[in-house]
Design a protein that fits this description.
This protein has 447 residues and is mainly α. It is 78% helix and 0% strand. GO terms for molecular function: L-amino acid transmembrane transporter activity.
């Protein structure tokens, strides 16, 4: 059986080296995943739950994420590794059902994120042609983007880091230009912010933070690639805080720009392409096209960076013998197989589910996994890594409150997605328990 100490600076034979991702490359990769999902896929859904106060939901999400990042930074500083979250869980809980299941939930939430962002890419790409509700075209385009992400990732670390850096620059600059221009034209008093706050519910606002947290969870991409970042003991924590900081500013700018241009009803109606919808009244046809191009760039780079992180995490779980693996007749290193599995799973989800349900499923899986990480660090590792108990408990409490509010709101509006999420979580835990039991029997190890 694997022991608790894992020195996984490699990638299971993928040929990538320690220190192959610079500080700026890592920040670009983190913001690449975050901004691809957060702004384009989730703004409308956050506004639907939070009402006119929806820009504040991003600030609340950033605060909860900063609390959450504390565990990951402390652990990554102590033990930087590729697939960092799996390593954190294994060190906390040992190589058993809890570590394996929580790691699988994390991987699933990342794959769900890829399909969410791929669908968003397709929605924006089809919007100029009035085809954004065409289910077949949405599925085909989303699938094409996921295949493109596979091709870029199959080329290795350097191409992912370079592509992320270039695309992140275009994206963040473009989004800032859109937001400032839209605000210049619309001012602060119009749109959603000119509406009376009637019908606003505190529970809806707290629930909306679940989606805001999803908009920031790309910071975990940095943790998962920790072993490949230059000087990881110093740079993993710095990278995470810089990336969260850049995203807070970007999200706030965009939220205020969208809110000043569209009413809450308008944002909700156009929730899958709210930035493009906001650009048209504020900036005319040129603004609309500019936003569509930026959205396509942002979502494409988000999927590329996310596939990179998930394939590493799954490679590490396989090397730790925490998930079953079959080569299905494929040759080449382990990571190239898991790249294929990641892409197949993300593609399947992108074809089968709509944006709202994909996002909700991702939020449930991520929050449960996040609470297990903080509890593991609090219970077993805080003295080893020098973490403060109060911050860890605050992170668990914040996640718990948001999860409870989100579950309550979803039970009223879409109870089936809560049931799907619960079944998914139970199946992951039960499946892992059986797999690990069988593995022990096969290896003739004592339980």
């Amino acid at each position: 059986m694997q022991n608790g100490h894992i020195h996984s600076h490699g990638d299971g034979g993928g040929g990538d080296r320690e220190g192959s991702i610079s500080l700026s490359g890592a920040v670009a990769m983190g913001t690449g995943v975050m901004i691809g999902a957060g702004i384009f896929a989730l703004t409308g859904q956050i506004a639907e739950l939070a009402g006119p106060l929806f820009p504040l939901s991003f600030i609340a999400g950033a605060l909860v994420t900063a609390l959450a990042a504390y565990s990951y930074i402390k652990m990554s500083n102590a033990w930087p590794s590729s697939g960092g979250i799996a390593m954190i869980l294994q060190k906390a809980y040992g190589p058993g059902t809890v570590a394996a299941s929580a790691s699988v939930l994390m991987a699933l939430s990342m794959v769900i994120n890829e399909s969410l962002v791929a669908r968003t890419f397709a929605t924006y790409a089809l919007r100029p042609f009035g085809q954004e509700t065409n289910g077949l075209l949405l599925s085909i385009l989303a699938l094409c983007l996921i295949v493109f992400a596979y091709v870029v990732n199959a080329a290795g670390n350097r191409s992912v880091s370079t592509a992320s850096l270039v695309m992140s620059g275009i994206k963040i600059g473009g989004i800032a230009i859109f937001a400032i221009a839209a605000l210049w034209v619309s001012g602060f008093g119009g749109g959603a912010f000119g509406q009376a706050e009637s019908g606003f519910e505190g529970m809806g606002f707290v629930a909306s933070i679940a989606f805001s947290i999803l908009a920031f969870k790309g910071f975990t991409t940095i943790t998962n690639s920790g072993g490949e970042i230059v000087d990881p003991h110093r740079n993993v924590g710095r990278t995470i805080m810089i990336a969260i900081g850049i995203c807070v500013v970007t999200y706030l700018l965009v939220a205020v720009a969208v809110g000043s241009s569209l009413s809450i009803e308008g944002i909700v109606e156009a929730r899958d392409y709210s930035l493009a919808a906001a650009a048209e009244p504020a900036l005319g046809p040129a603004g609309f096209w500019f936003t569509v191009v930026i959205a396509i760039t942002a979502t494409a780079s988000g999927v590329v960076a996310s596939v990179f992180a998930v394939s590493r995490m799954l490679t590490m779980l396989t090397e730790m013998k925490l998930i079953p693996h079959s080569h299905f007749g494929m040759t080449g290193p382990l990571r190239s197989h898991l790249l294929v599995y990641t892409v197949v799973l993300a593609g399947t989800l992108a074809v089968l589910f709509d944006l709202t349900r994909i996002a909700a499923l991702g939020a449930f899986f991520y929050l449960v996994m996040d609470m297990l990480v903080h509890w593991g660090v609090f219970r077993y590792l805080r003295r080893d890594v020098g973490a403060k108990a109060a911050i860890l408990l605050a992170a668990i409490a914040a996640d718990g409150v948001v999860l409870a509010a989100f579950s309550w709101v979803k039970l009223k509006s879409d109870p089936m997605i809560v049931i799907y999420a619960a079944i998914g979580i139970v199946l992951v835990f039960a499946g892992e328990h059986l797999f690990l039991q069988r593995r022990e029997q096969n290896e003739g190890e004592p339980s």
